[in-house]
Amino acid sequence: MKPDPMKNLTLWALATAFLLTAAPKKPRLILAVMVDQFRYDYLTRYRSEYHAGLDRLLTQGAVFTNSSYIHVPTVTAVGHSTFLSGAIPSVSGIVANDWYDRDEKTHVTSVSDGAAKLLGGDAGPGSSPKRLLVSTLGDELKMANGGRSHVVGVSLKDRAAILPSGHMADGAYWFDPKSGSFVSSTYYFPELPGWVADFDKSRPADRYRGVTWLNHRLPEDLKALYDAIDSSPFGNELVEGFAELALDHERLGLHDGPDLLTVSFSSNDYVGHDFGPESPEAHELALRTDLLLDKLFQAAAKQAGAENVLVVFTADHGVAPVPEVNAARKMPGGRISLNSVRDAVETALVKKFGAGEWVTGNWDQAVYLNADLMARKKLDQGVVEREAARAIFAMPHIFRVYTRQDLLRGHALPDEITRRVVNSFHVRRSPNVEYLPDPYWIIQNKTTGTGHSTPFGYDAHVPTIFWGAGIKAGRYDFPVTVNDIAPTLATLLDVETPSGSAGRVLTEIFQH
């Protein structure tokens, strides 16, 4: 039988129509929300008390109950850099909040930039994403459509505003506790946008002078207030109010291309450090976060239309219980001071190799050794690292110690913990010696409160929820990683996957 060309054309048209309708709906506005130090179990522990934003996410979103980080240390900069790049630290270059830069021969932060100047606060150095070696979702969006998409980042912390929004962001803004203002840097523009300057002139933080929450009263003195406000619910309120202004003045969701607003709420982290995850203060912050999220969601829906907004929600890390709380319930835990680790290494290396300042940096669970001193003494770096590692491992409650030379050669116990350490090993930036405390033990110089940075569940298990345009709601119990967020969003938006992404596309949540 002779083929019917019209019939074939009709079948092709139907097939094409099916493929087009099968594509998930593309949002006009992506609202990427991270709550600093928001453990996954905050969602379940206080579930009956959520009636606003978190309730919307949990009832209408795609909720991943077993989402974790696959790196160590689990700290703010690393989590925020992972969020919308999908990259592990060995690729992104963001190995910690702080590290010793061997090229610059100085201590740096994840966003420090000597070429940038602060805008909007007291004169001082600015910050930028220049140390982030990979692209983010926002970068890929802007490259895909010639910059028609607009990208803005907001937080109390500079690294939390800068790292998720990426290199090509139209602006990143954070709170300066010296001036009580929202600031940015000359990396983005020569001067602050007018709407930001006007917001700062209104002195938004000043209204919290002497305000009480639970049993805590904020200072009347303005300088003391600005220092204290991040450790209260009112730091988050400032961020949410600023984010609403950014939506309006930057016309996010109204451009010829999907826009991205990244918002990170930091007060939960400060309060969690001071009082612990099971404190009334952490509970109060979780409930207030529920209300603030709803306010932000409503503003985004009003701006772009509810049907055009996609929300993704996660956290940068969890936190360990306060050691005294654990002790009272017969659980392990305690504190190891950073200073004691440094002293142990210095003492051991002086005894073995002679006088000198052996440690050039000591942050979280990382020790950087003095390369110039080793060179002058003509010492083999691996030999010195092993001696430092022995000194640390001899200390009580040290679980693992890894040297740089061992990681370079693949000489480490091949298990999941080591895999997370390897995921974070950047040849130029990682320390000479990295160590992990026993579970529930924390590394800090303070003798109160708690901390985070380990690969264990309480630090690594965080929420991941997608909600809105193109998303199929439901509960998803299989394991995923935070690295999966960026490639999933990139696929939904039909743009290139961020350059260092290590995650997979969560196609099961796409609504066709």
How much of the polypeptide forms β-strand, as a percent range?
15-25%
Please report the number of helical segments.
20
Rg over C-alpha atoms, rounded to the nearest angstrom: 24 Å
Overall number of strands: 22
Mean model confidence by pLDDT: 95
N-end to C-end Cα span: 37 Å
Question: Helical content, roughly?
Answer: 25-40%
* CATH architecture identity of the largest domain: 3-Layer(aba) Sandwich
Q: Structurally, how many domains make up the residues? A: 2
What can you see in these coordinates?
With 512 residues, the protein is α/β, with parallel strands linked by helices. It folds into 2 domains: 350 residues, Alkaline Phosphatase, subunit A (3-Layer(aba) Sandwich), CATH 3.40.720.10; 110 residues, Gyrase A, domain 2 (2-Layer Sandwich). It contains 20 helices and 22 strands. Strands 1, 2, 5, 6, 7, 8, 9, 12, 13, 20, 21 and 22 form a 12-stranded mixed beta sheet that branches. The longest helix is centred in the middle third of the chain and has 25 residues. About 3% of the residues have low confidence.
Detail the topology: elements first, then pairings:
Elements: H1 5-22, E1 29-35, H2 41-45, H3 53-60, E2 62-68, H4 76-83, H5 89-92, E3 98-101, E4 106-109, E5 112-119, E6 125-127, H6 137-144, E7 151-155, H7 158-165, E8 171-176, E9 181-185, H8 194-201, E10 212-213, E11 216-217, H9 222-228, H10 233-249, E12 259-265, H11 267-275, H12 280-304, E13 309-314, H13 323-328, E14 334-336, H14 338-353, E15 359-363, E16 366-369, H15 371-376, H16 381-393, E17 398-403, H17 404-409, H18 416-423, E18 433-437, E19 441-443, H19 457-460, E20 461-468, E21 474-476, E22 480-481, H20 485-493
Parallel strand pairs: 1-12, 1-13, 2-21, 2-22, 7-8, 7-12, 14-19
Antiparallel strand pairs: 2-20, 3-4, 5-6, 5-9, 8-9, 10-11, 13-20, 15-16, 16-18, 17-18
Helix pairs in contact: 3-12, 4-7, 10-12, 11-12, 14-16
